[in-house]
Amino acid sequence: MSTKKGTLKRKIYSRLLEWKQNSNGETALMIDGARRVGKSYLCREFATKEYRSHIIIDFGNVSGEILNMFNNESDNLDLFFAKLSAYYGTALYNRESVIIFDEVQQFPRARQLIKYLVEDGRFDYIETGSLIRLKKNVQDIIIPSEEEHIEMFPLDFEEFLWALGDEVTAPLIKKCFDTLQPLGHALHQKIMNDFRQYMLVGGMPQSILAYLSEKNFEKSDIAKRRILQLYKDDVSKFAEGYEDKVFAIFDGIPGQLSKKEKKYKLSSLSKEARFRSYEDSFIWLNEAMIINTCYNATDPSIGLALSSDHTTQKCYMGDTGLLITQTFMDKPYAENELYKAILFDRLSINEGMIMENVVAQMLRRNGHRLYFYSRNDATNRANHMEIDFLITAGNKISPIEVKSGNYRFHSSLDKFKQKFSKKLANSYILYPKDVMIKDDIIHLPLYMAMFL
């Protein structure tokens, strides 16, 4: 498969098709995702291919005339649609057209109207947004029950391989994952080389397209810098009143993740910092899907959320490629040591930070909420444990440790297995080497995290 210039194949397209076929106009679709993750492009492509006509209303850049129609003329839908059609110069066809509300969080009134537009039944409706659950964006509206909600993430590793023109490798990886068979040295090394590219470029469409044009990491880095600047602009615009705290947390992520214990320590921002005064800032970044928050589950069981301690958390960047650029944001591309370290398999530089972040990204993309286990017992070292991730597996829990290829011990995992043996499914170590089962622990190459 070759990727056409400017296009990327996305798995979520099939979710949109399912919604169109199953809903038959009885619900609107809300797509939530970080800015620049590809929501608008996906909707435009879907509308063009799957409908006779479409109108896209971008509430980030919309005229006062359109806003006035939503505010004052939506009680007469015949006239409303006639004016909308005339304004955009697009004919609308009963049950053959879709209207897209892009960045709908910037005009909550349009979202509230979804209930009545869906009841009218003439057209389909897709909404896109970020920060759509923030109190500020919903406090004055009734959230329509007619919405179906899906999250859109950066491209995963399989989608990145598609962008490289490779549709055969991921199914083979899946087969080896299912059978727990090694891929063999040569194939594993080839896939790890592609995975290193993925970690560096990340999954943001603009970064991937910039890289693919000439296989140029610098062009990718420039695209990522623009995205990071956009995020900062959004903080200034939409986190009014506590933007300084959001900036402090956001800028501190690489430093926090580079430490051995990756829990976010507010004391690094200020000796007087307390979680309650920064809580809204963490929520803002999480709702914007800029970060993936991982909470400490103090009592590992099937209901991980029930024992999660929100004051003890790790903050991973939602896209690992963005983390790599953010880490050296104050230096030019040529001085970013991570590119060389990853490309030439010298990941001792901030090794844990990069590998844990990409695993968090892949687990989150696979539908998991992120939890870890941390217990520090100064009086009894046997009770001291740090498990990087916990995921549910049926009615049990699977612990996951992320290790370097040269690791020697997994004492925390051994203690965790012994203490919670009745609650556990498979135990995993994710590392840069091939599939192996040792000490009753399944060792998987990092790229297989996409199947957990």
Automatic annotation (TrEMBL):
Domain (DUF4143): residue spans on this chain: 233-405
- Highest taxon of the source? Bacteria
Ranges for domain AAA: 27-161
Matching InterPro entries, A to Z? AAA_14, DUF4143, P-loop_NTPase
PANTHER family documented for this protein:
ATPASE
- Name the record gives this protein: AAA family ATPase
- Species source reads Ohessyouella blattaphilus
